[in-house]
Amino acid sequence: MHHTILREQEISMLRAEIEMLMLERQSLLKTVGAAARFIACLDSRKLPEEACETAERLAKSLNQLSEDTLQDALERIKA
């Protein structure tokens, strides 16, 4: 009986953790989608050099994501 209660508590804690991670994933996908859209709209010829370097770093990070993840991110912002 005591083992069953502990097992149920563990399952409940795992559910709560998974829900928290899923909410965080959704938030991160929205952020990535917005960043990808922002990079796509930039005209690097009009950016200061420092901003251009930062945009390049961001673009490289975005390009390292899987195509599915990037597509999910863009769908979250309806881009």
How is this structure best described in words?
With 79 residues, this protein is an all-alpha fold. It is built from three helices and no strands. Helix 1 (2-41) packs across helix 2 and helix 1 (2-41) crosses helix 3 (67-76).
The pLDDT mean sits at: 94
Task: Give the radius of gyration.
Answer: 19 Å
The biggest sheet amounts to: none
Name the helix and strand elements from N-terminus to C-terminus, one letter apiece: HHH
Q: Counting H and I runs of at least 4 residues, what is the number of helices?
A: 3
Beta-strand segment tally: 0
Measure the end-to-end span: 52 Å
Q: Could you tell me the strand content as a percent range?
A: under 5%
Secondary structural class: mainly alpha
SSE layout:
Layout: H1 2-41, H2 49-63, H3 67-76
Helix pairs in contact: 1-2, 1-3
Concise overview:
This protein has 79 residues and is mainly alpha-helical.
Give me some keywords for this one.
79 residues, 3 helices
